[in-house]
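Hello,

I think I submitted the zinc ion job twice by accident. Can you confirm which output corresponds to this input? Input:
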Amino acid sequence: MTTGKQETGTAVRIRPIPAFNDNYIWLIEDGTHAVVVDPGQAQPVLDVLEQTQLSLVAILLTHHHHDHVGGVMQILQKHPALVYGPALEVLPACDVLLGQGDCVTINELSLRLDVQDVPGHTAGHIAYAGLVNTANGSQPVLFCGDTLFVGGCGRLFEGTPAQMLSSLDQLAALPADTAVYCAHEYTLANLRFARAADPNNHDLAAFEKVCQAKRAANIPTVPSTIGTERLCNPFLRSREPDVANSVQRWANKTLQTPVEIFGALREWKNGFK
Ligand SMILES: [Zn+2]
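Support: Only one job matched these inputs. Its output is below.
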């Protein structure tokens, strides 16, 4: 009897390699092969590869910031892996230049990830979305760097509010059970701001409690899911009347368009203590 579930390759696990104060370098591995996402620091990755004896086959980069690419050259000296990254950014190394509509296939891990352009945090930022084969079956995943965070979004260093809103809309359209692997543990600060922007959101209040308990136990709050982000993340909810009203109260003026509201929400967060 067939179950309808396709068995392809061995199961992979995804876990964080902590770096700097609050970065997560994501490690995707099947016990033999490994991929890392955004290795801002080399040593923590080199240590894990040494301990586990995994063979590094690829490095995936989302954007050019040092805390995402700073470890690449030193890792390559020991592990000559293929580097994938955004075509529109200057990177320390990149073998495969990617943009909207491209697909990354890593046969060793049966990985197939679609590339999306998500400008806003940086001008050429990309995200990787696809399915991984886990011990519990097929799981949709997203590696989104500094575009979407748990309960928040990246600062607009190089892009406009219109670009970031459109990038986040694209990510929000992914399946609800997509696991969101962002690059920083910013969740509790993000959720404190989220509560100010979206004070009557009961899902958000409950989610904040869950995340506080995780942090108290030193457990990462990442990944969350796209479904949770749609319910709790004010930057995916700036068109909701409650959030829009809070933003307009903060700005002390009427804002006409979703882009204006989103832009003001991001400004409010920039100065939020
Ligand atoms: Zn960044």
